[in-house]
Write a structure and sequence with these properties.
Strand content: 25-35%
Strand order of the largest sheet: 1-6-7-8
Number of domains: 2
Mean pLDDT: 87
CATH class of the largest domain: Alpha Beta
Low-confidence stretches: none
Structural class: alpha+beta
Length: about 210
């Protein structure tokens, strides 16, 4: 499997609760001949990404097989995911080298990864995988049926949420919930109250869907 490092950022939604050990990592799955997926969840948030791989035969022979294995599935621990994300070269000599390769044919309690810059030393990692059954992300995704959808610049939404958190003076622990209102073609409204203040922040949608 050829894995673009940025897809591993789904790890931001992985659990930090050791009692739910199988959620303390990222689920990598083979979805098709050239399609992979990565999923992470802590039971409250979920991130899921699928991608079309670069041509597997274009990756140089380095002792790790990039070819697909039907129904390959493995859970990679959070700490290892963060290490893998930094393995690929920042300025690859050719596009296919931007990937980290996972050998799907040798998954058996461990997973082998490789990144290379050809002329320089290869970077390899053998990771002990997590056991357990991962939740069915597909069920959660299929059950999400919005009544209203809007398109919004994600950086604008992040800025609005960060402004809300800072203005409210919130800390991660014990923070009160906020309400997000989606009002058709109108702005997305983030609002809430705590102690002595009420805060409202708007994020302007691009277009309605």
């Amino acid at each position: 499997m050829l894995i673009p490092p940025n897809v591993l950022n789904v790890v931001g939604c992985a659990s930090r609760d050791p009692a739910r050990y199988q959620l303390c990592g990222v689920l990598l799955e083979r979805k098709g001949e050239r399609q992979g997926s990565a999923t992470a969840t802590d039971g409250k948030t979920l991130a899921h990404v699928t991608w079309m791989e670069d041509e597997q035969q274009d990756f140089p022979e380095r002792g790790v097989n990039p070819a697909p294995a039907p129904k390959a599935s493995v859970i990679i621990p959070t700490a290892a995911v963060k290490e893998l994300a930094g393995m690929a070269p920042k300025k690859p000599l050719k596009p296919v080298l931007r990937n980290v390769v996972m050998d799907e044919h040798t998954l058996n309690g461990t997973a082998t990864f490789l990144a290379t810059e050809l002329g320089e030393t290869d970077r390899r990692a053998t990771v002990k995988t997590l056991e357990g059954t991962y939740p069915d992300a597909g069920f959660a995704l299929r059950s999400c049926k919005p009544e209203t959808s809007v398109r919004v610049n994600p950086f604008l939404l992040i800025r609005a949420l960060e402004t809300y958190v800072k203005t409210m003076g919130l800390k991660k622990t014990g923070a009160p919930d906020c309400t997000i209102d989606i009002c058709g073609p109108s702005p997305i409204r983030i609002r809430g109250a705590c102690d002595d203040r009420e805060v409202t922040v708007l994020a302007m949608p691009l277009t309605t869907k």
